Here is the input.
Amino acid sequence: MSSATTGKRNFWIWLIVIWSFGSGVISLLSFFAVQFGAVPLSDAQRDYFDQLGLIDHMAGVLSATLNAAGAITLFKLRRQAMYLFFAAFGTSVLLTGWHAATRGLSGGLVELGLGLGLLGTVCVYVQKLAKEQRLS
Here is the structure.
């Protein structure tokens, strides 16, 4: 009997919870720190952030919030984690498409691919846990 079946969190669940919650919280803190001027930015960075619109900001905050909420529900071993992670993935893909269509994608493509790939892998794993009824 695996540790997830007995109500305990296995290594992968802990790793996903720590990574997703940490990255979600850091993203939210970074966003608000930049918005309120708590972080000094170069002129190029300031120009980039000044060009971002409401959709960019809302989608970024939504994605980070969904990741953090997914981590919390996965920690609680709840089936809702699957839906939250899939929503975070979908939001990230849509935001990436929005950026590609409106600003183009330059640089950071490897990091972007790794980020979406990791989140997609998390979605597949959490869906597997749900199908195996390891999440309630």
Q: What stands out?
A: Residues 11-35 form the longest helix (25 residues).
